[in-house]
Amino acid sequence: MAQQLNPIEQTHRRLTAAGKRILRLYAGNPNDQGFHFPGEILERAYRDYFRRQDYRPHPKGLPQAREAIAGYYARQGAALDPEHLILTSGTSESFFHLFSLLAGPGDNLLAPVPAYPLFDAIAELAQVELRHYALREDRAWGIDFEDIERRADARSRAVILVSPNNPTGAVASREEVARLVAWADAKDLPLICDEVFSEFYFGPASFPRPMALQRPKLCFTLNGLSKMFALPGLKLSWIALSGEAARVAPALDRLETIADTFLSCHIPIQEALPALFAEGAPFLADYRREVRRRRDLAVALLQEESALRFVPPQGGFYLTLSVAKEMPFDEEGFVIRLMEEEGVFLHPGYFYDDESGTHLVLSFLAQEPELRAGIAALRRFIHRY
Ligand SMILES: Cc1ncc(COP(=O)(O)O)c(C=O)c1O
Contact at 8 Å (CB) between 103 and 156? Predict the structure, then answer.
C-alpha cells in the first residue's frame, strides 16, 4: 500500500507540479550542494577492478579497506584493530544490524530526541522498541541524564549517541562523553556512536570521540563515506568495535555472521578505499573549510534576526531554530505557509520526533546565494505576521 503523504509533502508536490521553484533548505546531500569527490581518483581506483573483475568477498569487508579505515582512526589518535571492523552498505544498514544483534522483541534501545528520522523505521523493522531520551535545548542541546536514567530499565540493551547531532548541531563535550560512558558501563550497556558528521566538527581541539576518550566496555562507532567524502552514492559505511576483549569478541562474531549473510558491500569501492583515504585529503580539507564557511555565514545571518533563537551548531550540517514571536500557525502550518508564500522549505521539528511543536530544522550545507535568499525569505515571512 502506498504511504500516505503528510500535509507538508503534499504541499511540496502541489507547488512543484504547479511550476513553483522550492528552495529545500533542509537538504543534507552534499552532492546537491556542489561537493563532489575528485572523479579522477575514483576512476583510477576502479580501473584495476574493471580490468580484472573477480569476486573474493570477505564477510567483514576486504582487508585492505579495513586497514585503510583503521589507519584513518590511528591518524586521529584512536587505535583500532582492522579485525574489529565490519563494512556495511550504509549507516542505516549498520543500525539495522546492530539493533538486530543487540535486542529482540520486548527489549528496548535508548535513542536521543530530536533524532535522525530513520531510527524509528529501522527499529520497527528490527522489531525493537526505541525509547527516546531528551536532548535539552536549554542546555545547548546537551544530554538529559536524568531522562536517560528514567527511561532505562532491565530490558534496555544499548544507548545511542549521535554526535555531531542531526538535527541540533550539538557535539557531546568531553564531560558529557565521560558521564555517558560511566553511566552505560555501570549498567553494562553498549554504546552506539553515530559519528557520520565527525569530520565537520567546529569546536575547539579535536573531536571528542568516545571510543578514544573513555574506552567504553563495549562501543560500536559508526561512520561511512556518505558525508565524510561526499560519496553517498557509493554506499560504504562501517561499524568499528572497541572495548573489553571478552565483550567485543562475541559481538564481532555475531556481526560477522550477519554481514556474511548479505555480503552487501560493493567490491570495487572496497578496493578503492585505500586510495580514497590516501589521495582524498586535499579534497576533504577544502570541503570541511567550505562547510565551516557556510555554517559561519548561516549563523551570522540568523543572529541578525532577534525573532529567531538557536544554539550555534558545533558540528554537522544542521541546526534547529525556534521562532521567538507569536505566530498564527502551529509548526506544520508555519512550514506549509512559508513554502507557499516564500518558496522556502524547512523541516518541522516533528519530522525528528521532536514533539514540542516549536522547532524548524535548517541545513546550512546550501550554497551561499541560497542560504542568503532562504534566510531573508524566512525573516520576511516572520515579520509579515
Ligand atoms: C545522523 C545520521 N546518521 C546516519 C545517516 C545515514 O548515513 P548513510 O548515508 O551512511 O546511510 C545520516 C544521513 O543523513 C544521518 O544524518
Answer: no
Question: Rg (Cα) of the chain, in Å, rounded?
Answer: 21
Rounded Cα distance between 183 and 202, Å, is: 27
Cross-strand partners of 192:
160, 220
Q: Determine, yes or no, domain membership for 30.
A: yes
Pocket of ligand 1 (CB under 6 A): 28, 90-92, 116, 162, 166, 194, 196, 224, 226, 232, 237
Provide the domain limits for residue 258: 40-279
pTM above 0.85, yes or no: yes
167-192 confidence digits (pLDDT tens)? 999 999 999 999 999 999 999 999 99
Mutate to test the pocket of ligand 1, among 196, 236, 317, 319 (most ligand atoms within 8 A of CB): 196
Q: Which strands sit side by side in the sheet containing 237-243, from one edge to the other?
A: 85-88, 237-243, 218-224, 191-194, 156-162, 108-113, 129-136, 142-143
- Tally of structural domains, the chain: 2
Note the residue count of the chain. Answer: 385
